[in-house]
Each structure stands twice: as structure tokens, then as C-alpha cells.
Specification:
It is built from seven helices and 17 strands. By secondary structure, the chain is an alpha/beta fold. The strands form four sheets. It has a six-stranded antiparallel beta barrel with strand order 12-15-14-13-16-17. Strands 3-2-1-4-7 form a five-stranded parallel β-sheet, with helices on both faces. A hairpin with a 4-residue loop joins strand 8 and strand 9.
Amino acid sequence: MNAPDRTIAVAMSGGVDSSTVAAMLRAKGHKIIGLTMQLWNQRRLAGREGMPEQITGRCCSLDDVYDARRVAQHLGIPYYVVNHEERFERDVVRPFVAQYLSGRTPIPCSLCNNHLKFDQLLVVARQIGAEGIATGHYACVEFDDDRGRWLLKRPADRSKDQTYFLFGLTQEQLSRTLFPLGGMTKPEVRELARKHGLALAEKPDSQEICFVPGGDYKRFIDAYLAESGEALPDTAGELVMTNGEVMAEHNGIHNFTVGQRKGLGVATGSPLYVIQIDGAKKRVIVGGDEHLYSRTLRAKRVNLISVGDLCEPMRVSVKIRHRHEPAAALIEKTGEDEILVTFDEPQRAITPGQAAVFYDSDRVVGGGWIVWQNRLD
């Protein structure tokens, strides 16, 4: 894939990272084709149920499509927009809504990467005669001859590390993917963009979920269900202390997430946090900060990368959310598609619906979706 004169499809999001990838690969002599995935109609819910009248400047927005097309024209490369709105809604948006309504806190970016972007980009790449794809993710991929496996590794710029969102990539997908920015820092990428004359070299990064304006997922869920003609399920129930004492009634478990402090609707002499959400009983368990710590979790829908199987317990470091510093732990297989993680030290606010990603130094061993955590109390 790195040899010159290869045809590579670059996933162009309209941001500085993917645009720089297209420019640098073209400069190396590759035949580049720009691809943008149209995933969500930003105008769809505008003005509904408290949503803003205009939704602009967001990841994967129409503005981004315009920027990506402008870069492609500047570089003189073919450019196509591929519409996958229907599948994005089915595989990402609906599961996102369902997870929140069941009391979990999902990661739509991982769902999108794992079940849509890389899968469909590679399909389109084959159709247009490209050998593989390249993206602007900060990560590294390489083949390990000793293991006989493709490895996903953390990038040089740890502050931009996106491997947490890529744990679901398969060996086939990794074998046909390039991450050209893996050895670069963000300032270096912007400087390279300037050298290539890219007009969006100073464009700020998008930090929000592409289909949830302002990060207000509660309003999004209300607006989405209303637009779909579906009633918001009754998920109201009790707000309960860890000792079982009922403190109050709440109006829906989807309004809470583990670790939340504000908006609980009760006041005591000391701060209270959401400790756990019992979706089956519609109960929100609250308690002091000391109750937020857990030593063990279980992960399902596991994908292993650096190893083919987990035949015996393995020492790793584990991230339980994107900004979490990997913590030392032991992982062991406890079922056909289940891994038990036992941390050396208790970790704060382990949240079902998030991912647990396992690292061996800078290599991604694999990961899975957190379905259970065992509180210390």
C-alpha cells in the first residue's frame, strides 16, 4: 500500500487532518480519490422539540462536504460523496437512542467506525479500483511478522490518540488501511497543510457528536422520537441511595449517566453522584464519591487485534473512556464473547455502554463494550 502509483481512497471529512492526508499521499506519487460519507442530514431536526433553528459548523455537516470538495479541487483529485444516511441511522443513531433509554451511555463514534465507516469505505474503495483507504485518524498500523497479525498502535501525539475509537477494526480492515498521521503531532499536521496551500489549515477541530447539536442528547432523543412518530418510553422511576433508601422520583433514566452530579433533583449535606443505573427496575442509584469506584468490569462483543484469542489471563493497561489514562489490569476470558477485567487499583465511574480498550504498551490488544461493573460497596 505504501508503494508509489497505488490508488488510495482517502476518507475526507472536510477537516485539516484528512485533507492533509490527501495532500501528502498525492505528493508521494499515489493516485488519490477523495471520498466523503454523507451520514446525517443536519437540517433534519432543526427547530423541533427545542433543537436550534440552524445547525451548522458540525462534523460531517454540509459545510464539511463543501470544504472537502474544495480541497479535492485544489489538489486536482477525483472526489465523490457517498450517501449512507439510511445505514447510519440504523446502525448508529437508533442504537444510540436505545442505549440511553435502557440506562447505558453509548459511544456513537466507535459504533460508526466499527460498523459503518471502515466497512463501507473499503467496499466503495474496491468498487472504484482503489487498493485501500487512508484516513486522518491519529493511530498507527503495521504488520508484525512474528505474530502474523496486523497491529493497531498508539500515535506519536498521545494527546490526539484515537485508538480508543478504533478497537473494533478487523485484520482485513487494518490490512487495507493507512493512518499517515500516526507519527506526527497536530502542530506538524497544520504546518504541512500550510505548505500544501490548504485553505482550511487553521480550521478548528470538531469536538461534538455529529448528530447531537451542543451535546444535548436529551433534546436530541425527544426531537428524534417525535419526528419518527414514536412516543418517548416511560422510564421514570425511583432515585435511590446505595443503602436502598428512596430519595425521590425521577422522570427518566435517560436523563442520567454514571458519575453525574448536577441535576439530580435532591440535596443532602454532601455531594451526591449517579453511581449506577438499573434499567430493568428504572432505578437510579446515587451516593457519595467513594461509591463510584470499581475494581472489576465485564466486556462483551469483544474484538481482539494483537492476539487471535485470549487463551490465558493477560496483563494489560485498560482505558474505560477516551480521556482515561490506561490503568493496569488483568484480563481473562470468561465466556465465548466476554472478558473480565480486574484492575490493580479501583477505577472511578466505570460506565456501561462505554468501551474498555486493552493495551500492551503502545499496542492495542483489543476491546469490548462494558456491560457490567462491580462497585466496591
